[in-house]
Amino acid sequence: MSTNPTQSIRVIINGRAGRYAVEPRTHLVDFLREAIGLKGAHLGCEHGVCGACTLRLDGQIVRGCLVLAQQADGHSVETVEGLSESGAIADLQQAFLARNAMQCGFCSSGMLLTAAELLEKRPEASRDEVRLWISGNYCRCTGYHAIVDAICDVLEARRVAAAGSPS
């Protein structure tokens, strides 16, 4: 008798539907990294504090270390790989590179997903609001200044583009 029976889940991952076998105690970030091969999200603290495991579940930011894979059954999961492939965060990625906001890269996927959410929900955010918004994502390398600069650059560029486009 198996102590960890697998169960089947249906999940849309980065726009692609699939059925997968998962063990009951498998966390969503472990499932994505090990079973699917999407290595963008990382395991950091495993307590939902550091933000390295940040994902989107049905469009909402979640900590992948706190969500079981089975909880994603019937839902849609987006990872940094999916947002990268779609081009949705191309300007944000370019700004991170230009500002040297990706040093070791460990926090980058979570930081990019969190910043993407900010860009969508708070396009008029101030520098202080950016700092507050990303405060749930730890970065041990940059001191946050480069990350905040990069996000503010994109906010400003998008504001200028929106002001110049016809309504």
Tell me what you see in this structure.
With 167 residues, the chain is an alpha+beta fold. The chain has 2 domains: 7-82, Roll (Ubiquitin-like (UB roll)), CATH 3.10.20.30; 89-164, DNA polymerase, domain 1. It has helices at residues 28-36, 80-86, 90-98, 108-121, 127-133, 145-164, and strands at residues 7-13, 16-22, 54-57, 60-63, 75-78. Strands 2-1-5-3-4 form a 5-stranded mixed β-sheet. α3 (90-98) crosses α6. The longest helix is centred in the C-terminal third of the chain and has 20 residues, at 145-164. It is globular, with a radius of gyration of 17 Å.
Task: Estimate what percentage of residues fall within beta strands.
Answer: 15-25%
Order of helices and strands: EEHEEEHHHHH
Query: Runs with pLDDT <50, length 5+?
Result: none
pLDDT averaged over residues: 95
What's the CATH topology label of the largest domain? Ubiquitin-like (UB roll)
What is the domain total for the residues?
Answer: 2
